[in-house]
Design brief:
Creatine Amidinohydrolase, Chain A, domain 1; globular; M24 family metallopeptidase; Peptidase_M24B
């Protein structure tokens, strides 16, 4: 961990030199986790920023927080690479800003969430470093992916058609918490709502004969994204065909995910493949996913995203049709192969172009 953090501090200091800045401030939950090798500044799960921030200068690396949080962070979260500055919780903003001015000599600062007119945004080079996993990050990602997929299987095997969507979402959240993961997102659509909405937030309606459960599960700041279906009676031929179509659409996408491929190329391939399968409007009915990592989606692919895939980037595509979807989290490895970080051999699957892909679980 300390070696990983040391390398990241080097990258941040390269950014300081290249931008003639004296300090980098990282406030977001994503950037905090990245800089600290998986530590968390989160208390309120829904917040994009947390109870501490990272400040890096040419000489030192600090975590800035208040007196409520400091000891817990020192005891349970932070690697040894960081000093800690503690400000009073009641009137700490002025004290913290004064401290930053002192250690940066009042010079230029850059930030992931710049304060208007006072700070500049992070350059694209550092954004790129955040999106490319080091081997230690990938190892943590594997742990998160396995825990999330095991939680999903556990919950769907226990699900009942009489459960409400709230109950299924709650069971999902409970299973993730029990494995030490933040349930950043648990979408549920039961039988009636499944063909109507792509982003189906849970309701009090019974799920009925089938349901979709979607996880964005966060651990060490990294997001494992996956979608699964449970059925309590046989799918109709038309419903089964929709699932087959999305698996075949996804296969085209996954085959394209090689170092050097740009995201717009993947998007246009998706659009073309949907059309070939007889669904020309599907590309517009839901976003198709993209790169992932310290955000549920780091970059969502669209017709103009020219960002290039490289070794170490994580991906989560989610091609969908009304009532059908497929989604897992993959990483591009050194040999260009894709590793499915959220694969669970205990969940039903079929082989699609050499990859095992999930199919609805019959319960």
């Amino acid at each position: 961990m300390n070696e990983e953090v040391s390398r990241k501090l080097e990258l941040i200091r390269e950014t300081l030199r290249e931008n003639e800045a004296q300090g980098v401030r990282l406030r977001g939950t994503d950037w905090f986790a990245w800089a600290t090798a998986g530590a968390s500044n989160t208390v309120l799960l829904a917040a994009e920023t947390g109870v501490a921030e990272v400040l890096v200068t040419t000489e030192d690396a600090w975590v800035l927080t208040d007196e409520i949080e400091a000891q817990r962070l020192i005891d349970e979260e932070l690697p040894a690479n960081f000093k800690v500055y503690v400000n009073p919780w009641a009137d700490g903003a002025a004290a913290r800003e004064s401290f930053v001015r002192d250690v940066t000599g009042g010079g230029k600062t850059i930030s992931d969430r710049p304060i208007c007119n006072l700070e500049k945004p992070l350059p694209p080079t550092l954004q790129t470093h955040k999106r490319v996993m080091m081997s230690s990050e990938l190892e943590r990602y594997r742990q998160v992916g396995q825990k999330a997929s095991f939680a999903m299987t556990e919950v769907l095997k226990a699900a009942k058609p009489t459960w409400t969507e709230y109950q299924l979402a709650g069971a999902g959240a409970e299973a993730l918490w029990a494995k030490g993961l933040h349930p950043a997102l648990t979408l549920v659509a039961g039988e009636r709502r499944l063909p109507l909405y792509r982003h189906a937030t849970a309701t009090g309606e019974q799920i009925g004969r089938q349901a979709m459960l979607v996880f964005c599960a966060r651990g060490y700041g990294l997001y494992a994204n996956l979608t699964r279906f449970v059925c309590f009676s046989q799918l109709s031929g038309e419903q089964a065909e929709l699932h087959r179509h999305v698996r075949e659409v996804e296969a085209v996408v996954l085959n394209l995910c090689q170092p050097g491929t740009t995201l717009d190329k993947v998007y246009h391939a998706l659009a073309q493949t949907y059309e070939q399968h007889g669904f020309p409007n599907a590309i517009r009915e839901h976003h198709q996913g993209g790169t992932t990592g310290y955000l549920a989606r780091e970059i969502v692919a669209n017709p103009t995203t020219t960002d290039t895939l490289t070794e170490g980037i994580a991906l989560a595509w989610n091609p969908s049709l009304p009532g059908a979807k497929v989604e897992d989290t993959f990483a591009i490895l050194k040999d260009g192969k894709l590793e499915n970080l959220t694969f669970d051999a205990n969940f039903p699957n079929v082989e699609v172009e050499g990859r095992l892909r999930p199919v609805p679980l019959y319960n």
